Amino acid sequence: MPKSESDLWDALTALDGGAQASLFAHCASFTANAVYEPANRYNQGRVSAQGVRTRLDQADVLARAVGLDMVLAGWRPTVDNYLGQVTKPRILEAVREAKGESWAQLIDHLKKADMAKEAERLLDGSG
Fold this sequence. Notes:
By secondary structure, this protein is an all-alpha fold. It is built from seven helices and no strands.
């Protein structure tokens, strides 16, 4: 990359449309954040519930715009990569979304570790 500002802008405008789009996508990727964070007293005011909701809504719009489908990409929720890291209500929400309310009720009485393991089993292959 050029060191001087004017040379940098000349180099950027000289890129073809595809390269400019790729560069824009790369830069925009740093602003997308779909990580859920609890907005509570333990996070020392770093995030508000509204801020998290807005950020997640924007990430959903971006995912739909680019046709992101995590299931088609091969991701599966497991205890290690998701279910063991989220709250019990989030585990139940995932099961409810994939399988329905009656399936979520099957595990709603379990302790978190057992709930996460059972949710992984219930969600396996649910797409």
